[in-house]
Structures are given as structure tokens and as C-alpha cells.
Amino acid sequence: MKLCVSALSIAKEGMSSQDFSWSWDMLTTGHKEAAIPAALYTLATFLQSVGARNLPLLPYLMLSQAKAIITPVLGMFFLNQKFTRIHWVCFATITAGVILVQTSPANSASTASTSKQPQSQSPILGITAMLLSGFCVALAGIRMEKMLRSKAAFMSRNAQLAWYGWLSASLVYFCRSQRGPPGFFHGYDPLVWGFALLQATGGFIVAWCVALTGTVTKNHAQVVGFLLVSTVPLVLQHDLRIQHVCGCMLAVGALFGYARQTPTPKGKGKQSVQGSAEKADTMV
């Protein structure tokens, strides 16, 4: 759906300028750069399924937050971002707060009731898979940030990312599914289509957020979304536990602490990442 919207938007611009070759150039120029994030996200999804099969719930939830620490590390190497000790303390505190929320009695009980642990597990394989998954997600986010901050148009980059993401997911589906192409839409109802529409809309919002700010900020926005989704139902059910409240307070407090100091690129003094984001916005 995201691919269709992006391609139609580019085609509409090409029709208005009566230059159809321009639309094709927009879709194909630099498209190979989008293959890496799409492949990494697909690989990360597979590794997460391996980790879920080979780890108990608590270690799985803890290791699923590895990307929160790996992302700024990769940002230092690939994007020349500079973080202070306060930033690293905030990263660790946010991760700890999210883990506390995930492992609180109410959340862990509801998750455990819907999941069945296999009889034979390999903890070493599960830990390795989750760490590699966190690395893949972090590296894919960094690569996507570099793409979206390039001089190419915003919609063309979204179309390229959506195309390679669809291609990777389709290959996995046809390799592992027994239904084949005719059964792809089996079970789709208006609710599922509604979720697909929300997912596509969220993809554009995430890409816009990454282009304006960065992958680290995108991860923090996802933390806020997770806290809201996990807290609101418990408040309505009057089942809020002290561990959940403490986790939310830690995460939110660390988010505010991080926001007070914006990380800067190395060698650029007081120039902030927000300043470079403004430049990226003008290029997009």
C-alpha cells in the first residue's frame, strides 16, 4: 500500500510535467541503497522468531531492547554523532524502564497466556539471534536515515524502501507458506485492511520523523507509543502495578533528560543534529 501511494504520487508529478522519463528516473535512481535496509529488517524479523523459540519470555523481552543501545553506537561510526555521558545514561535508563514495563506482572501474564514455550530450547542460539536482530534493526535504521537525508525526493526513497521491503517479505512468504499466491489474502477482513492502512500511514510518518530528526529520536517516539499502549488499558482496568509505574517514570524521565541536550556531530562544535535535520528537511 505504501509502495502504491508513493509510486502514484511520483507518477502524478511526472504527468503534470509531461515528462514520464522523469518519473522512472525518480523511482530507479539510487534504488540499490534501499535494498540493504529492507534485507536487514527481513533478516531481523527471522532472527526474532528464532529468539522467541529458544528463549523464555523474560530474556527475550530484555534482549529485544538491544537496538536502543546499538543504534547510537552505530550512529557514532556512520553518522559522526557525538553523545555525552548523560546521553548514555539516558539510553540505559530508557532501556531499563521499558524492560520494567514489559516484565511487569500484568503485561507478562497477558503475554505468557498467549504464547506457548517449546519443550526444547537453545539459550545460546536464542541470545545470539536476538543480539544479531538488534544489530540488524539498528544498522537498517542508520542506513535508512542516510537515505532519507540524501538529495533524492522523499517519495522516491519511500517507494524504493517499500518495494524492496515487499520483495523481501514476499520471498520469505513463498518459501515458508504452503498456501501459495492464491491464499495470500485468505482471512483478510475490513479490520485487517484497516490495520494495513494504519501501518502504511505509520511508515510515512516514521520516514518523515527519521528525515527530520534521526533514528535515535524515532526509537524514542516508539518508546512513548509503547508506554501509552501498555498503560492506557491497565488504567482502564484498574490493574496498574507499582513496577509498571516505576518503569514508565524511568523511561519518561530519561526521555526528558535526553531532550535537554541534543547530541552533536563530531568535529562540528555546537552544531546540533537538529540543525543537520533542518538541512535534510530542505533537501527532502
From TrEMBL:
InterPro entries: EmrE-like, Nuc_sug_transpt. It is found in: Endoplasmic reticulum membrane. GO terms for molecular function: pyrimidine nucleotide-sugar transmembrane transporter activity. Its main location: endoplasmic reticulum. SUPFAM superfamilies: Multidrug resistance efflux transporter EmrE. GO terms for cellular component: Golgi membrane. The chain crosses the membrane at residues 57-79, 86-104, 124-141, 161-179, 191-212. Keywords: Endoplasmic reticulum, Membrane, Transmembrane, Transmembrane helix. Residues 263-284 are annotated as: Disordered. It is a multi-pass membrane protein. The keyword Phosphoprotein does not apply. PANTHER family: NUCLEOTIDE-SUGAR TRANSMEMBRANE TRANSPORTER (PTHR10231). This is UDP-galactose transporter. It comes from Aspergillus mulundensis.
